[in-house]
Specification:
The structure holds three protein chains of three kinds. Helices cover 72% and strands 4% of the residues of chain A. Chain A is mainly α. A two-stranded antiparallel sheet of chain A has the order 2-3. In chain A, strand 2 and strand 3 form a beta hairpin. The two termini of chain A are 27 Å apart. In chain B, 29% of the residues are buried. Chain C is of the alpha/beta class. Chain C is built from eleven helices and 13 strands. In chain C, strand 4 and strand 5 form a beta hairpin. The longest helix of chain C has 18 residues. Chain C starts with 7 loop residues before the first strand and ends with a helix. The chains are: A mainly alpha, B alpha+beta, C alpha/beta. Chains A and B meet through strand 1, strand 3 and helix 10 of A and strand 2, strand 5 and strand 11 of B.
Chain lengths: 279, 226, 313
């Protein structure tokens, strides 16, 4: 199995599109860092202007933790597209290229091929999240220095002490990885169903967009289905920056996301194993 | 003879009762004026409706007549008003007019409520002071300034009550509802909370707990600089 | 003498796609060490048969035996013994030929040395292109690389589905030579499906013709193309009258096609002089008698019969 995962990882590494994600993350992170380096304090002042009238806010200044958080918050919208670019192509790319015929006539079961591909896509996603972490958080700490983190919520803000941020960031990255794994498994399912590699990517993003739009509307019927949409839970990583830690909410969201991953993968497994390769 | 003796004993007290608000304020200032400077540890407890911030420790510095600064490591939301500004105001009785507003009990202590109106055109436009009759300390102050609105400070005294240095100083502040555009936050999908009004005001408190006072120590002015 | 056990036997294979019966009880038998031509027109069911065999498509029913043992379609230990190219070999274009070979070999649990892979490239004449990205290869080169890939794990059976598709004449000749070499030097059994009959005629030891998902003929190529059962094409102005005369003399004559000035009849080579005499006796004008005995004719004859048979049902 390890050999298969190595092969699939190698295939991902050999495709130019696999580097789009890393290039995009690097470009966006560096761009945000430069912008905040130039004008971050006025951005922060704007955000806390209503509190400035009441309080003498001591020690507030842009720092690496804040920049890391802002970048994480911004990039979470783009990351699904970047991972879907690779995972959506995992099976359909082989279909489109015709290599699926050669692949499935090797003495390896379809299930093993599927799991190896999923593992390789997950590895890619993990590396992308890791790269984001290194660049956005550790990079920002180097550039802006340490400091307390101001987390903006729509009706309040949370101050997280500098010494208390490392485990929160790491946990957030782990949860961000899990939420991106939902995207990987969804695009994987669509990839198994498609014979070209663009359709799964577009459909994955359309589903995420649709669910996110449903999530933003405060309409009773939408409110009923919101708890079941995986997109509702994809921002649960933010809860690691709340106090007290909303553990129940984190565990609920984690369960919903793991359920989605399991469901998407089961469907992919059943579909892919029964699929006739006719093209 | 007994009557004469009783009169002689009560005479100073009757004089005390008869003190004007200005005299009471002067007496309170005199009690505090022996403090030329201090530094102390301070533990700050926050209870602010829109700001979730942990309690924190730091150092407090004071230098007469009115320099006061709390030094902390990290972000802190502190009251804008300098609580020692009231002593600067009552230092010179020619600088203000005072009016007695009766008596009120704070905790177990009876207080004289005195309103103070500065004569000069200053930022502080009005102060109401609850002066403890027994401790001679300001147990409560309501400071109204142009820049910061109304701030209420409640003091609790202990070991340094004789010098009007509080053990606890609790600020009550009115806060406008904190509002950030949703696009700038990440709780995009979170369930909307029921709002009771767009301009809802709420009250928060910040409590300073002082300890380890070092009185009249030499304090570098740099401490008070930003 | 006991008949050798075929290396591969397919029995009564059926597959339906929706309303279309792609395979309708197909049978075939391949002997060890031969080149087996698997013939049929486009859509006859060749690719479906091969895909069923290799597990790309799940058949509805049927039996497959490999070396006399029943196997499931796509069974792993069977696939280990098979090297295949289906339709056209496709590779990871951005990777080199050697890297593609390595990936393929690793899927068989092998870790071939560079020398072993190079040896394969020499066999297919690509020894100088091993490090080049496959996307720079022509279709012929890809076909050759596909053969190298199919051979790398030293399979007993090689299955090539339409391997000449997209090849230029030189590519076809090269492929033919490689396949002959594989058979004679390495003793491989090769199943080659094609609708280009002249290719198969030159290569195949035995063949099977399928139509509408059914086997309509199977046998040894040499025997089928022997002097028996030759097709004679007779050129005349009066094909209908001549055909009638021949029929009356008890010969098997195909009905002349409308507007055609020739008729076709089946006969052994030894009968040709007698037929010439008979034609002279009829007094009808005969311009030429051409013996035609090529796989293509046989194929056309059999598929037309099959069409007619299907039409009557």
């Amino acid at each position: 199995m390890l050999e298969l995962i190595k092969i699939e990882t190698f295939k991902i590494a050999a495709k130019p599109r696999s580097y789009i994600g890393f290039a995009a993350v690097t470009a966006i992170v560096v761009l945000i860092q430069l912008a905040l380096y130039a004008d971050g304090q006025s951005y922060l002042d704007f955000l806390i202007q209503s509190l400035n009238q009441t309080f003498e806010i001591e020690g507030i200044g842009f720092n690496g933790n804040m920049v890391g958080f802002i970048i994480l918050q911004t990039l979470i919208i783009q990351m699904p597209l970047l991972v879907a670019l690779v995972s959506g192509d995992a099976i359909s790319g082989e279909m489109q290229g015709g290599t699926i015929r050669g692949l499935l006539t090797k003495p390896v079961s379809r299930s093993r091929i599927l799991w190896a591909k999923f593992a390789a896509s997950e590895l890619y996603t993990f590396l992308l999240v890791l790269w984001l972490g290194v660049l956005a958080w550790l990079g920002s700490l180097l550039l802006f220095g340490e400091g307390d983190l101001v987390v903006l919520k729509s009706d309040s803000l949370v101050i997280v002490r500098s010494a208390d941020t490392a485990w929160r960031f790491m946990s957030a990255f782990v949860l961000a990885f899990v939420s991106l794994s939902v995207v990987v498994s969804l695009s994987f399912l669509l990839s198994a169903m498609s014979e070209n590699s663009i359709a799964p990517i577009i459909i994955t993003m359309s589903i995420i967009l649709l669910f996110t739009i449903i999530g933003t509307f405060d309409i009773p019927i939408f409110n009923k289905i919101k708890p079941w949409l995986f997109t509702t839970h994809m921002i649960v990583w933010r809860n690691f920056f709340d106090r007290p830690l909303p553990m129940n909410q984190i565990l609920t969201s984690l369960s919903v996301m793991l359920f989605h991953i399991a469901a998407f993968l089961t469907l992919t497994h059943v579909y892919f194993n029964k699929k006739d390769i006719t093209q | 003879m007994k009557q004469v003796l009783l009169f002689a004993l009560l005479l100073p007290l009757t004089g005390l009762v008869a003190q004007t608000p200005n005299q009471k304020l002067q007496r309170a200032f005199k009690q505090f004026s022996s403090v030329k400077s201090f530094k102390s540890d301070v533990y700050i407890k926050f209870n602010l409706p829109s700001v979730n911030i942990e309690d924190m420790s730091g150092k407090a510095f004071y230098k007469a007549p009115v320099k006061f600064r709390v030094r902390l490591k990290g972000i802190a939301f502190l009251p804008k008003d300098n609580p020692f500004r009231v002593f600067e105001l009552i230092r010179d009785s020619s600088q203000y007019a005072s009016v007695a507003n009766g008596v009120e009990k704070i905790g177990s202590e009876q207080c004289q409520v005195i309103s103070v109106i500065p004569n000069a055109d200053s930022d502080l436009v009005f102060a109401k002071i609850w002066l403890g009759e027994k401790s001679n300390c300001p147990l409560k102050m309501q400071l109204t300034s142009r820049s910061n609105g109304v701030v209420v400070v409640e003091n609790t005294y202990g070991r340094y009550a004789t010098k009007s240095l509080p053990d606890k100083m609790r600020f009550t502040v009115d806060m406008n509802k904190f509002k950030v555009p949703k696009a700038l936050t990440a709780d995009i999908n979170s369930a909307p909370k029921k709002s009771s009004g767009s301009n809802q005001k709420s009250t928060g408190t910040i409590e300073f707990v002082f300890s380890n006072y070092a009185l009249n120590a030499t304090i570098d002015d740099k401490v008070f600089v930003e | 003498m006991q008949k050798p056990i075929p290396i591969l036997e397919i029995e009564n294979l059926r597959k339906r796609f929706g309303g279309f019966q792609a395979l309708d009880g197909l049978n075939l038998s391949v002997q060890r060490g031969e080149i087996f031509g698997f013939l049929g027109s486009n859509g006859a069911g060749k690719s479906t048969t091969i895909r069923c065999l290799l597990g790309l498509i799940a058949p509805d029913s049927g039996n497959i035996r490999f070396r006399g043992e029943p196997i499931r379609p796509g069974q792993r230990d069977f696939l280990r013994q098979v090297g295949c190219i289906i339709e056209k070999p496709d590779f990871y274009g951005s990777l080199s030929a050697l890297r593609n070979l390595e990936i393929s070999a690793r899927m068989y649990g092998m870790k071939p040395s560079s020398a072993e892979m190079q040896e394969m490239l020499v066999l297919v004449g690509l020894e100088t292109r091993g490090n080049d990205a496959v996307k720079t290869f022509s279709q012929g080169m890809k076909q050759r690389l596909g053969i190298a890939q199919a051979l790398l794990h030293q399979p007993e059976l090689i299955i090539l589905d339409e391997p000449t598709n997209g090849l230029d004449p030189k590519g076809m000749i090269d492929l033919r030579n490689i396949l002959r070499q594989l058979k004679t030097e390495l003793g491989k059994t090769i199943i080659i499906s094609s609708h280009i009959l002249s290719e198969i005629e030159q290569l195949a030891d035995s063949f099977c013709i399928i139509d509408h998902g059914k086997t309509i003929a199977q046998g040894n190529t040499a025997e089928w193309l022997s002097e028996k059962n030759m097709l004679l094409s007779i050129e005349t102005d009066q094909p209908d009258a001549l055909a009638e005369h021949l029929r009356q003399s008890g010969r098997s004559v195909e009905a002349p096609k409308p507007g055609s000035n020739s008729i076709t009849l089946t006969a052994d080579r030894s009968e040709i002089p007698e037929i010439q005499r008979f034609l002279a006796q009829t007094g009808l004008p005969v311009y030429s008698i051409s013996p035609r005995k090529r796989l293509e004719d046989l194929f056309l004859q059999l598929t037309e019969q099959s069409e007619r048979h299907a039409g009557t049902h």
